[in-house]
Structures are given as structure tokens and as C-alpha cells.
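Changelog-linked ticket: N-oxalylglycine example.
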Amino acid sequence: MLMKNKLRAVQHDSNVCADIEGFDFDNYSADDIAQVRSYWLQYGVLRFKSTTMTDEQQVAFSRHFGEFVIHPKQLQEGGHPTHKEILVISNAMTDGKPSGAMGNSEATWHTDTWFYERPPAGAILRAVAVPPSGGDTYFLSTYLAYDTLPDALKKSVDGRQIFFQNVYDKTGKLRLGKSVPSSRDFREWSGIVHPLVRAHGETGRKSLYLGGTAEGAWIVGMPLDESEALLAELWDHTTNSKLVFVQQWNVGDIMMWDNRCTMHRRDGFDPATIRIMHRTTTSGERPV
Ligand code: OGA
Ligand code: MN
């Protein structure tokens, strides 16, 4: 092993996140990356506190974890002026236009781009500017969500598939390239089917895959009212967990999550204050 850094992972009580100490973004080896990768698979969410990482370093670091995925928002307001790999999440306005995606609103619990055939495996989110209050980001483990399901619920989800419509986003806006559907039943719209319980492509562990919202989701083959009731129960179980990690950002903080076994959400914040984050995203396997 050719380690350049002496790394340490300090796990939080939440059980879903560890702080990685001792990583030098100016000087690391392939073995350091392998160590980070193994922590990432073990903990699901990693935090690197108060780094001085640049955009160039973020792109170079992310590249070690897989192919880049271009988020749909990167083709809209969330594009970065010089690094096409970076998604800009920002509520700042430039010349009367948003200079990034997501604005200042709250983002409810989700896993990223669940409506893709192959949702991303990883995301690396770095704080560039933080507001004095608000805008915290919360993380939970969907391994734990599955493991802690009561047996009866486990039986009702095992082997099931879930359909997600991919025409409208959570705010009711048409997604890029989609048109208004003719049917009133969302189950007939364009969408994607994933397993409701997925096995992680690298660890093999099972997790509950609820996507980003219970609305416009259907457990395939189940009467709609039953599916809605079951999904409501699964969402409650997952998001009422006490094992949630809360990230209160400082400039330079980096959160790196495994999008295959975690969910996250964000608090809103005062629109008169500025919050800017730079995110890179790496590709994942088709859920099975
Ligand atoms: C994301 C996201 C939350 C945040 O990057 O996928 O949901 O805290 N961001 O900005
Ligand atoms: Mn997200």
C-alpha cells in the first residue's frame, strides 16, 4: 500500500455518516482513494470538513469514483460556466436570472434522479457560500430503513417493483423533453420501473428504494389505493427514523454520499441570503 495520507474515519451517532480526517486534496495516492472508497461503501455518507478544494480538484477527485453523470439541471440554470461536470446549486441571481438550480426552497426527502433508468451511484457536494442560518442538509440510510421494517412489511415489499412517472418534477414542472400526457392516470405516463427493495451493486446489501416522492409512484400490480397506503407507511417508517445525520454547512465542507443506499433533504433558508454549492455526480448501475 502506498498511502500518502493518514486517514481516519470518525463515525457519528446517527450511524449514517463519518467524518474523514487527514485527507489532503493536494496530494493523494490511488491507495488513499481506495481507502476513501471503502469508507464510502461502509458508511454511506462521508464528510470532509472545511476543505480548500477548488473546482478543478473536485472534478479530478470525483473522476476516481466513476463516470460523470450530467444532471438535467446542468443543461438548464444549473450549468457551471467552465466545468461541464459541475452542477451549480445556488439561489443567487445574475442579470435577473438564476445562476444555479434549486433556489432557496426546502427540498423534501429524496434519492437523486430516481426517475432515471440508471440513477447515479455517488454525489459530491461542496459548500462555496453558506447562509448565516438555514439550508441544512439531512441524511438517512435506506439500508437501515429496510433492516428495521417490521416482518409483515418486509414480506409485502420483497420482490415488488415500483413505477415512478418521469413527466413532472416534484414542483409540478414538466421535466426536460417531456410533454403533457393525454391520460389522467399517471400509471399510463412515461416512467421507470425499479425494484422496491434493491441490492447494492457493490456491497450486496438490501435497501428500500422509495425514489423521491410517493406522488406519482405505484407498486406495480397492486390496486392503487393499497399501493398508496403501503407507500405512505413505508415513507413514514423511513423518514421518521431517529438515525438522521444533520449537516450544518461551513464553507469548504464536502458531503459525499452513496445515492444507492441513502436519502437526503434540505431545509429552506432566507432568500435574502446566498447559498452556493458545487456538485459532481458519478454513474451507477441499474437497480436490481
Ligand atoms: C443535491 C441536493 C441538497 C443541498 O445536491 O442532490 O439535494 O443541500 N442538495 O443543496
Ligand atoms: Mn438531491
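Closing comment: Example verified and attached. The chain has a mean pLDDT of 95. The helical segments are 30-43, 55-63, 142-147, 151-157, 224-239.
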